[in-house]
Amino acid sequence: xxxxxxxATYAAPCPPQANxxxxxxxxxxxxxxxxxxxxxxxxxxxxxxxxxxxxxxxENAQVVIMLAGLLAAAMAAYRQGSTVAAPLWWVALPFWxxxxxxxxxxxxxxxxxxxxxxxGPTISxxxxxxxxAVPWVxxxxxxxxxxxMLRHQLWSRVLLRLQRERAWPVASLALFVLAMVISTxxxxxxxxxxxxxxxxxxVVLEELVETWGYAALWLAQWALIRHTAxxxxxx
Length: 235
Hints:
about 5% strand; 9 helices; 2 strands
């Protein structure tokens, strides 16, 4: 059976490729983030409390990281538009948007603070007229993502394939989860009351670990984008 050049290219198997999740740059980046996560505890005592305030340097850095993650996902969805992985990056977009919305108090961060206490400026999304609609919008986006995954069979065609190819950046994802656990405890909602150890400086610890956590999540996405970029268009 004769195939045209385009058809042969489309049907050709993917050549072997290096796994970005286990590359040296990835390993060194994970090591650096792990060290920074550990150093967050002593740094939380040393850095000014203002670094952990709403709209402070650390929170602004987080927004930049999340914006970079959003743009990277959008670019991957466009560049990999002919592959089975492209819908995965469209699914990633709402999650980055939700993370950004949370850190920016759904827009209230751009308004003047409504007060100030020992923890710093008080910013509340409750002053926003559209605040009651936020959970519904987030829920609708989540349902859209679930529909997108079912429609494009992302579980079997992409997620399980990543598992078979051992492409999941486990170390980066573990660092993200660990950072969020520490942040939850710093907020006083976990199983260890870090506020008893750090006092008002706990806000610095919270924002520090969240910064490294979002960086780890961006790194994980980078590794997956690099890996799926090597897939053939036929999937």
